[in-house]
Amino acid sequence: MRVCGIVLAAGAGSRFGFPKGLARTPGGTPWVARATAMLRTAGCDDVVVVVGARGREVARLAPADARVVVADDWAVGLSAALRAGLGAAGEADVAVVTPVDTPDAAPQAVARVLGALGPAPRDGLAQAVYGGRPGHPVAIGASHLPGLIADVTGDRGARAYLERHGAAEVECADLWSGADIDAP
Questions:
Q1: Domains (range + CATH), the chain
Q2: Of 45, 56, 46, nearest to 22 (Cα)?
Q3: 51 near 11, Cβ under 8 Å?
Q4: pTM
Q5: Which of 10, 93, 14 is nearest to 46 (CA)?
Q6: Looking at residues 12-39, what average pLDDT do you find?
Q7: Cα atoms found within 13 Å of the Cα of residue 8, Cβ hemisphere only
Q8: Boundaries of each MobA-like NTP transferase domain copy (predicted)?
Q9: pLDDT per residue as tens digits for the range 86-95
Q10: Three-state SS across 108-173?
Q11: Cβ proximity of 6 and 98 under 8 Å
Q12: pLDDT on residue 103
């Protein structure tokens, strides 16, 4: 099974004060680098970092082993970054999506959502949940990519599509909080 990891790092971070793709851990590690490393550790064959707001600066923080994709229409909202990332998944059997603002995400969560795809991963959908609350990562089988790309609009992600298509919910609260970071 070929897996493409996707880091969504295109937003302006209006509530955050600057693009989250430029954020760093207290030790100075870029969140983009942490997210990429987490996906690689989890076994992703390819990692795509989607940039938009201040894209050149964010791209410079991406590790050399990641492919950078620009969401030219990033100002439209989350859907633009998601469409760009999913469109770049290429020949992957599964795309695993995570936002850049979850720098504490556990690679074991990726393993769990991938494991929940079942015997036909190209046709599966799975989402990490934390105490029953939907979160990331999300695993999307290749057969769902065209439909999901067509479905997302504005500042909405994949949640409605995942619900309509019965995505498996995979509890991961024992691995980490699942919380995104909204303040610097």
A1: 3-171 (3.90.550.10)
A2: 56
A3: no
A4: 0.97
A5: 93
A6: 95
A7: 29
A8: 5-165
A9: 999 999 999 9
A10: HHHHHHHHCCCCCHHHCEEEEEECCEEEEEEEEEHHHHHHHHHHCCCCCCCHHHHHHCCCEEEECC
A11: yes
A12: 85
